[in-house]
Design brief:
By secondary structure, the chain is of the alpha+beta class. The protein has 25 helices and 25 strands. The strands form 6 sheets. Strands 15, 16, 17, 18, 19, 20, 21 and 22 form an 8-stranded antiparallel sheet that branches. It is globular and about 80 Å long.
């Protein structure tokens, strides 16, 4: 570990006051004990620490409680002014239940690990880098009964046929056996032998572990894969990711963490909106490390391959597990860093929201200083950032500038911080995080090798996430130090600054194109552009810093937050739901990208020719089903969907109707791919849709009229930008 990184770890507000290193897991061993697992230089050891549960409440709340409890009166005038400490976890639970029955104000952490880490100031993974963890990846392949589209562990014939296993130390193997019971026992043996700190899998919660546990239970095979030889356990859980609600069984394995790369991908896609689907293969293709021979197979195809060519099935399974390992390496390192900072188990650090994590930093320091904690404030709304479009059409030589961390900078510069933060830790944390990020970025540039470079990239990315989370924390309903007045003041000042910048650019001969909260796309003035950056920076208030980013050959502005940029190297950046909606079939997205590229290159006159090519491909049936199938994500359970239909709360959906008809046990968050059959462009899609897996290239039945009409409709949306010929400048083009 470098000296630079050690300097970060000495910051007690961020990394906790306890300097203990190399903790890889903690577990509740008994009512009064915590078992702590350490791994150093590959050697695992354990230590027993006392469990001392506590909660925050108000003076007088425990009148009449019969259990043993010790009280500490806290400093300050905030609402939770009494700390109640209990001799064991059972008494803590009794105390919490008693307070609830009395209507008393209570702040209790129900996560044993979080309580212990908060009290002790310890965090996991201190003194370690990501490669120090032992990580094991698991991917299973399952059979599917005749007549069904997907495997179901409740059907006897739908057994596990192969389990691919790998780790970050070079081991990989595909387990197969004629006896499913023996196969599961082999997996248990591998896990116990390799003794991983982390088990990774793609959709491992809702599929792999769920399937394995159900088959193991049916076969009476003990799934004793904990570090204490205890069985894996699970409970129903729910995760909200942007507009998606994902229900899943949250598995827990004693002494180990479980990281689901499917969830990591969901979090990644919230900010980028770049992924068309979430399979291992498609995600690997997106990141550029998929192999050509790794193709997606349906459950029915896997069943046939198991019978006809087991070696080919092994190769397919290895492709899955290798992809999972690469995805985990790419997307989980920031969460590894976060686990060093926040008092959570690694598994929980992945799924906790950023504002909740920030709240935990406040709670930890206020606990240490024995300071009272405020009640959560009354929620109220407030205006957001400033957005506007000043120009639509094609623009050449486009610059972009933005305010570096606009809202956090405003918070520090103008003192718009939580009013109840009597210890002023928000100011200290924000100040330190900004300094640390700059140092981490410099360390990344000076890294000696790729591993060190990746580590410091994860570190600076984590600091950036935390910096930008502080503003969101101000308006987070469940935050104890939320301050809606401060949040409103931050956005108001942010709007003022960005509007002043826009006005200055106009006054100095620039043409603004689009403004979005903290950034401006604009065409620079024809004269005096060389020192524009310095002159604009000089107009800004102290503490507010403008950054000029990449300059683009061209920009096509369609409408607010929907635009395409042509970079100097000829590549495109595409933003906005209009251009990237998953409600569009692939041929529509491809056609739109072709249009955008031609518009940006001032070759819009060629678009009608490309339109004809796409239409001919449809009419002559040259495309595979992947070009015209649609993939929808289920938001409701099938039962909830049927309730809404019966109550006229929603219209029928092709994805849901097909999910019901297939007999599969699909859940919210699952995806259904389908295509439209028939011969008319006007159809009720849910009546004529088929699963993409049912498409037969030798007996094609896709609805050509329907898809051609969709292509024409898309063309018409952009027609005003398509008509001009090459020899004439486009109307509205900024040259």
């Amino acid at each position: 570990m470098s000296k630079q990184e050690l300097s970060f770890a000495t910051n007690e507000l961020l990394f906790g006051r306890n300097k203990t290193t190399h903790i890889v897991a903690i577990e509740q061993k008994s009512d009064t004990e915590i078992e702590v697992f350490f791994r150093e230089k590959g050697v695992l050891r354990t230590e027993i620490q006392p469990l001392q549960p506590f909660l925050w409440t108000c003076a007088g709340s425990f009148s009449g409680f019969s259990g043993k409890v010790t009280f500490i009166t806290l400093n300050g005038d905030n609402g939770y002014n009494l700390l109640a400490e209990f001799p064991d976890w059972t008494t803590f639970q009794s105390g919490k239940k008693f307070l609830s029955s009395q209507g008393g104000e209570t702040l209790a952490l129900n996560d044993v690990a979080q309580q212990h880490l908060l009290r002790t100031g310890q965090t996991l993974f201190k003194g370690m880098v990501f490669s120090d963890l032992t990580r094991l990846q698991i991917e299973i392949e399952t059979a599917c009964s005749e007549g069904y589209e997907s495997s179901n562990p409740s059907r006897v014939e739908d057994r596990i046929v192969a389990i691919a296993v790998s780790d970050n130390n070079g081991y990989e193997e595909v387990l197969m056996d004629d006896s499913e019971q023996t196969l599961i026992n082999k997996l248990v043996s591998v896990i116990l032998e390799k003794d991983p700190d982390v088990i990774e899998g793609h959709n491992i919660f809702r599929f792999d572990l769920d399937y394995i546990s159900k088959r193991a239970k049916k076969l009476k095979v003990p799934l004793n894969i904990g570090r204490d030889k205890s069985p894996a356990t699970s409970r129903s859980s729910r995760l909200q990711i942007a507009e998606k609600t994902i229900n899943y069984p949250k598995f827990q394995i004693y002494g180990r963490h479980i990281v689901d790369t499917y969830l990591l991908v969901q979090f990644y896609d919230v900010s980028t909106r770049e992924l068309e689907s979430f399979t291992v293969k498609d995600v690997a293709e997106h990141f550029g490390f998929a192999t050509e021979d790794h193709d997606y197979l349906s459950s029915r195809e896997i069943t046939a391959l198991y019978k006809s060519d087991p070696e080919k099935l092994k190769a397919y399974a290895l492709g899955d597990v290798r992809g999972t390992q690469r995805i985990a390496e790419l997307l989980s390192q920031s969460y590894f860093i976060q686990t060093q900072i926040f008092g959570y188990n690694y598994q929980d650090a992945v799924v906790r929201g950023n504002a909740t994590k920030i709240d935990s930093l406040f709670l930890r320091e206020y606990f240490h200083q024995k300071e009272s904690i405020p009640f959560t404030p009354e929620v109220r709304g407030y205006p957001g950032g400033f957005t506007d479009v000043f120009y639509t059409g094609l623009a050449r030589d486009v610059w972009h500038c933005d305010i570096a961390s606009l809202y956090p900078s405003v918070m520090l510069s103008y003192g718009y911080l939580p009013k109840n933060d009597t210890l002023l830790i928000s100011h200290k944390l924000l100040t330190d995080l900004r300094e640390f990020r700059l140092k981490a970025k410099l360390a990344q540039q000076n890294a000696a090798d790729d591993a060190e470079k990746n580590h410091f990239h994860a570190l600076q990315s984590t600091f950036k996430i935390l910096i930008n989370s502080f503003y969101g924390y101000l308006g987070f309903a469940q935050a104890h130090f939320a301050d809606f007045n401060a949040a409103s003041a931050v956005t108001a000042k942010g709007r003022e600054i960005i509007q002043d910048m826009t006005a200055w650019l106009k006054l100095n001969g620039a043409q603004p194109i689009e403004v979005d909260t903290d950034g401006i796309y604009f065409v620079p003035p024809k004269e005096n552009a060389h020192d524009l950056e310095k002159r604009l920076a000089d107009t800004l208030p102290p503490g507010i810093r403008v950054e000029f980013g990449e300059r683009y050959q061209a920009m096509f502005s369609y409408k607010a937050k929907n635009y395409a940029l042509l970079k100097k190297d000829g590549s495109m950046i595409i933003k906005g739901a209009t251009f990237k909606s998953r409600g569009l079939e692939k041929f529509q997205r491809d056609f739109m990208h072709e249009m955008l590229r031609l518009i940006l290159a001032e070759n819009a006159h060629e678009i009608p020719l490309r339109m004809d090519d796409f239409r001919k491909n449809l009419e002559q049936k040259k495309w595979d089903v992947k070009m015209f199938m649609k993939t929808d994500t289920l938001q409701d359970s099938l039962v909830k969907y049927q309730e809404k239909i019966s109550g006229s709360a929603r219209n029928k959906s092709a994805a849901y109707e097909l999910a019901i008809a297939s007999g599969g046990k699909l859940q919210p968050g699952d995806q259904v791919s389908y295509y439209v059959t028939g011969t008319s462009k006007k159809v009720a899609v849910y009546e004529v849709a088929k699963l993409a897996s049912q498409w037969d290239p030798n007996n094609r039945d896709e609805n050509i009229e329907y898809y051609t009409a969709k292509l024409t409709e898309l063309y018409k949306k952009f027609q005003e930008f398509i008509q001009p010929v090459a020899s004439q400048p486009q109307q509205g083009t900024l040259l």
